Amino acid sequence: MTDDSNPTDDGVVILVGSGQRAYREYLLAGAARRRPIWILDAAEPTWQQEYVLGSTTVELLDRARLVPDTEGLIKAAEAVAAEHRVVGVFSYDETLVVTTALIAERLGLPGLTSRGADNCRNKHNTRQLLTAAGLPQPRFAYVTDAGTALATADSFGYPVVLKPRGMGASIGVIRVDGPEGIREAFEVADAAGRGGNSDYEGGVLVEECVMGPEISIDGAVFDGAWTPLFLAHKEVGLAPYFEETGHVVSATDPLLADEELLGVLRDAHRELGIGYGITHTEVKLTGRGPVIIEVNARLGGDLIPYLGSLATGVQPGEIAADLAAGVRPEWTPAESRTVGIRFLYPPENGTVRSVDVPAPADVPGLLETNVMVAPGATLLLPPEGYLSRYANLICAGESFPGCEESLAKAAALTTIVLAG
């Protein structure tokens, strides 16, 4: 345990899991601007040190499956609270949201309830609760063998989607267009679920494949009341899998004022039992209206909140720290533009020899180019591997078409060479 300075009168907020620098540094930096941060993490801090008051290392119970030591983390949080005035706790890591909620309850702090966190983490719980509340979502069934999966898919009609009940980032999610593909898809989804926390392993959700554009909404929950922050339009690829290849956020997106959509999301958060925090909800816009795909008890991944900050000037890390402390956040947009990201995947499995990306000056509207792998890295496409991205590109524009045009130009100038 390290302690390099004294906490301010505002009290300390504990962050459980700091994440990968490339994806999460902006959130830690934002939170640290609001309140002193103490991190509980599975490894000693490196880049995090400039942002934190102190840290405690609690190793994972299973590093391969990212299983946290929940009791160890709770005891570490109690130790911090014995030395400092802890006013909040939060996490933006999918594998740690339930543990974080348990810490909040143990210390008597605002935050996600453990019930609410588990209802989001366990996709079967999500479906059951939203169904009972009459909220729009795909037809679904939880099955534990391929034969039942086939019978369920036949009754729903094709296409269907099979997914693990406790993973994130579309890992193990697969579309099936006919009965001949069910057995293999069940094995893929079931195997993916066995790569995560054992609390959620075994069995697969079979769902109706609803059609329409997909969006995600990061929203703030204060005392159970949900308010939208950023709305992203999602792009997916590598069919029949659902790898997320891009997102576009507009500060003036008219869907942010769509009362049908907002009403559904407010009701869903109330039914799931979420208290305080930021959530990431995925929705399909269908002919029958908005249909909830999932609700996640954390900020969005894929740098979506970062896009939101670039598009609006609103800082999600700051808001997350306020919510953790039970303070009603206030935000005023300082920007108004459209910002998008494109993730690039290799054409096939292979070992990276080199990656070349354009400079921002090469493409109008190009803000950032980020190489995500080093030479020698092995990239595997689904189902052998997931999230095998070699670069990302971030562009801004005055409209969706302008932003998409800049992203396409930048992607065309990006190359990867794989070892033969």
Automatic annotation (TrEMBL):
<dbReference type="InterPro" id="IPR011761">
    <property type="entry name" value="ATP-grasp"/>
</dbReference>
<feature type="domain" description="ATP-grasp">
    <location>
        <begin position="127"/>
        <end position="325"/>
    </location>
</feature>
<protein>
    <submittedName>
        <fullName>Carboxylase</fullName>
    </submittedName>
</protein>
<keyword id="KW-0436">Ligase</keyword>
<dbReference type="InterPro" id="IPR040570">
    <property type="entry name" value="LAL_C2"/>
</dbReference>
<keyword id="KW-0067">ATP-binding</keyword>
<keyword id="KW-0547">Nucleotide-binding</keyword>
<dbReference type="Pfam" id="PF13535">
    <property type="entry name" value="ATP-grasp_4"/>
</dbReference>
<dbReference type="InterPro" id="IPR041472">
    <property type="entry name" value="BL00235/CARNS1_N"/>
</dbReference>
<dbReference type="InterPro" id="IPR052032">
    <property type="entry name" value="ATP-dep_AA_Ligase"/>
</dbReference>
<dbReference type="Pfam" id="PF18603">
    <property type="entry name" value="LAL_C2"/>
</dbReference>
<dbReference type="Pfam" id="PF18130">
    <property type="entry name" value="ATPgrasp_N"/>
</dbReference>
